UniProtKB/TrEMBL annotation:
HAMAP family: Maf. Keywords: Cytoplasm, Hydrolase, Nucleotide metabolism. Its cofactor is a divalent metal cation. SUPFAM superfamilies: ITPase-like (SSF52972). It is an enzyme of class 3 (hydrolase). Nucleoside triphosphate pyrophosphatase that hydrolyzes dTTP and UTP. May have a dual role in cell division arrest and in preventing the incorporation of modified nucleotides into cellular nucleic acids. Its EC number is 3.6.1.9. The keyword Hydrolase applies. InterPro entries: ITPase-like_fam, Maf-like. CDD domains: Maf. GO terms for molecular function: hydrolase activity. The keyword Calcium does not apply. This is dTTP/UTP pyrophosphatase.
């Protein structure tokens, strides 16, 4: 069987760590794409469109042979009462996001696109995870922002970091919250001919 590998179209260190856990050969190519979408897009349309855009940009610009590779892109947003929360613009924005999320349940959407280098076949899907956050005092929110953790995270928190202490419970895939739902990704890879548990060395 032909050797297969993944090209992860991402600048995110979390996604790199997560994909590494699959134990497959992979390389990372940053995908710098515009993240604007039409006003009337639903959360699932947003994350699916952006995941596709990231993967397609890297796929189109790849300068070597793509046969035997699968290009993967993904995008994560937090949604509270229909409002989409991306990454905070600054500390004030992070404070606004965290004070609206505390004591409530929100949804995290991640879109994932896999493109086969073999035949250009594209699979785009998303997962949704519900996250219930504890009540937080303004002091706790300020202290958390001072750690710097919120700055590059959708919704201004990281469930895999200190933000874990704010999370009461989740319903759905944990890895979806961190930015790459591994079970969904493994299904896509398998659909495109790359079986995570039976890779040829
Ligand atoms: C809610 C949450 C988000 N995040 C992160 C995952 C994503 O990296 C980030 C959302 O931004 P994205 O735009 O999805 O990704 P990115 O810009 O970091 O990386 P890429 O190059 O792949 O586009 O928020 C966490 O790390 N932990 C969390 O608990």
């Amino acid at each position: 069987m032909k050797k297969q590998r993944i090209i992860l179209a991402s600048t995110s260190p979390r996604r790199r760590e997560l994909i590494a856990t699959l134990g497959l050969p992979f390389e990372v190519r940053p995908s710098h794409t515009p993240e604007d979408t039409p006003e009337d897009y639903t959360p699932q349309q947003i994350v699916e469109e952006l995941a596709y855009r990231k993967a397609k940009t890297v796929y189109d610009s790849y300068d070597s042979e793509l046969a035997g590779t699968i290009v993967v892109g993904s995008d994560t947003i937090v949604v509270l009462d229909g409002e989409v929360l991306g990454k905070p613009k600054d500390e004030q924005d992070a404070y606004r996001m965290l004070s609206s999320l505390q004591g409530r349940t929100h949804e995290v959407y991640t879109g994932v696109t896999s493109i086969s280098g073999e035949d250009g076949r594209v699979i785009t899907q998303h997962r949704r995870t519900k996250v219930k956050m504890k009540q937080l005092s303004p002091d706790a929110i300020h202290a958390y922002i001072r750690t710097g953790e919120p700055s590059d995270k959708a919704g201004a928190y990281a469930i895999q970091g200190l933000g874990a202490t704010f999370v009461d419970s989740i319903e759905g895939c944990y890895f979806n919250v961190v930015g790459l739902p591994l079970s969904l990704l493994s299904e896509q890879l398998s659909e495109l001919g790359l079986n995570v548990l039976s890779i040829d060395e």
